[in-house]
Amino acid sequence: MKKKISKTNLYPKWQETANRWQVFPAPLRPTLNECQIYKEMIEKVLKGKKKPKILLLGATPEIRDMLFTQTILRGARIYLLDISPVMIKAMSEILGFKNPKEKPVIGNWLNMSFKDKTFDVVLGDVVLENVPRERKEDFLKEIKRVLKDEGYFISRFQFVTPDLKNFKIEKSLKKYSRFYLQGKINFKQLVMFVESDLWRSSYYKGDGASSLASYEKDLRHFRNSTKNPLYKLVIDKLLDYFKFVLKNKWYLFEKNKLDKFLRKHFSVRSIKYPNDHYFAKVCPIYLLKKIYFLDNKILSFKIKDDGIR
Ligand SMILES: C[S@@+](CC[C@H](N)C(=O)[O-])C[C@H]1O[C@@H](n2cnc3c(N)ncnc32)[C@H](O)[C@@H]1O
Prior knowledge:
Blueprint: H1 7-10, H2 15-20, H3 32-46, E1 53-57, H4 61-74, E2 77-82, H5 85-93, E3 102-106, E4 119-125, H6 136-146, E5 147-156, E6 159-160, H7 169-181, H8 187-202, H9 216-225, H10 229-245, E7 253-254, H11 255-263, E8 266-272, E9 285-290, E10 293-294, E11 297-298
Parallel strand pairs: 1-2, 1-4, 2-3, 4-5, 6-7
Antiparallel strand pairs: 5-9, 8-9, 10-11
S-adenosylmethionine binds at residues 10, 14, 17, 58-60, 82-84, 87, 108-110, 125-126, 130.
């Protein structure tokens, strides 16, 4: 029997994310170089196509701005799919361009209202991580269902690395505070870099879900024991933020597990790492081609390689 998942786990309140979106540093929000990688991948797979249909999972404004060029170049029609009207509205307000060929749809990625084989490309920035472990397979199947047989799924994934098993809050505070004091990052980035370490390392603390809840006690304890005023300030900011996101959960993989899982449904055509942020090594962008079956044979293995590597 399928385990029941609480609605709050699947659809946390995104208002706080929407409020903070424009100050999010990488890896929470796609960078210029990441958008460039997305653009190059899209251009390769859509070459020669007229009026392609693209589905964006989520409402990421940076990606929508990047996709606008596809509407101009080849009349691409863009569909957005997000469960949260709050996010769609908030993200639409910070768009660089309003695309007349963009259609927002409110709905669930796990049960899409689109017909089979509708899209040439499905795109999503760090979306698999939003889906609980026990539904990830359904999620990939649903993406494949709505993709045309020759379709592609392009997505940035974030993975965890075993060194996070030895994670200590004080180590993270010390490392990023040094960057801050050297003037390499600002205070908001300092808070969010520590936050990012907390999210990713919490994977190794509990049931495989990344959640800030497992750190609340540790942070309070450290806040009371440290004499460093900068550390206190960072922790106060984090605890303040925790009020909004404590119930949120992320479900990450280690890289080898991620690859194995993706290869069950897609052929991996390219993996590109960005070059413009601190966490670049743990969030590459994948170009994935749908594997489809006909007469019980896997046809995409017979198809001539299109040279995208
Ligand atoms: C962390 S936020 C933003 C991340 C994503 N990179 C983006 O830019 O949209 C996650 C977004 O995914 C949406 N979302 C999460 N799970 C979903 C699901 N099962 N179906 C539809 N939208 C979902 C949320 O409503 C939210 O807008």
